[in-house]
Design goal:
Blueprint lengths: L12 H14 L14 H17 L5 H16 L1 H6 L2 H13 L1 H11 L2 H16 L5 H17 L4 H9 L7 H5 L2 H7 L2
Helix pairs in contact: 1-8, 1-9, 2-3, 2-6, 3-5, 5-6, 7-8
């Protein structure tokens, strides 16, 4: 463990895992397997809608949309944030709808998973799991969705890395998590 305070308890393990995992995801020389993901379900939906405009203009071929739709379907089935919003049966129906009428389905799902709500659920999901011990899998999944959202919407990985890790030798984990700028990102 890189960051340990003298009053460390197991209830703070989630915070430690969060900070260390975030550092791994954002570090320039990390292996691709541990890096921050490029997309989550919500950003894939945005990409589809944006790419669709280019298909209409004729600058991109239709098969590009098919590739994105397959990624959306896969992401829908595994995204913990979408599962917080909808029951599994509803998600399965959305996935089946993608196979029947791709364009209509994507626009329907896009409207059912609005940006702001997705982000709020990401933050809520992370906050619920950070304070618990033995929730590393949940923290990892929430962190991947949250970080992909931030990066897609314009935050630089360097900025987030510095926020969390830039002063790591002087700050303890709980001080990092209490950073007002990070709190603003997490809507704490």
């Amino acid at each position: 463990m890189k960051y340990i305070t003298q009053d460390w308890t197991s209830t703070k393990d989630g915070y430690l895992f969060f900070v260390q995992r975030l550092q791994e995801m954002l570090f320039h020389y990390s292996d691709d397997i541990v890096k921050a993901p490029v997309h989550n379900t919500q950003t894939l939906l945005e990409e589809y809608v944006d790419t669709e405009k280019d298909v209409v203009k004729g600058s991109i071929k239709q098969y590009q949309l098919d590739i994105i739709a397959k990624e959306i379907k896969s992401s829908l089935m595994t995204d913990v944030i979408v599962r917080e919003l909808y029951k599994y049966e509803v998600i399965e129906e959305m996935a089946k709808f993608l196979d029947k009428d791709q364009r209509t389905a994507v626009h329907y799902i896009f409207n059912k998973i609005p940006k702001k709500k997705y982000y709020e659920i990401c933050c809520k999901y992370l906050k619920e799991n950070l304070s618990e011990s033995n929730r590393k899998t949940e923290i990892e999944k929430g962190l991947r969705a949250w970080l992909a959202f931030l990066l897609w919407h314009g935050y630089s990985s360097e900025y987030i890395y510095f926020l969390i890790c830039g002063q790591r030798w002087r700050l303890q984990v709980l001080q990092i998590v209490q950073n007002p700028k990070l709190k603003a990102l997490l809507i704490i």
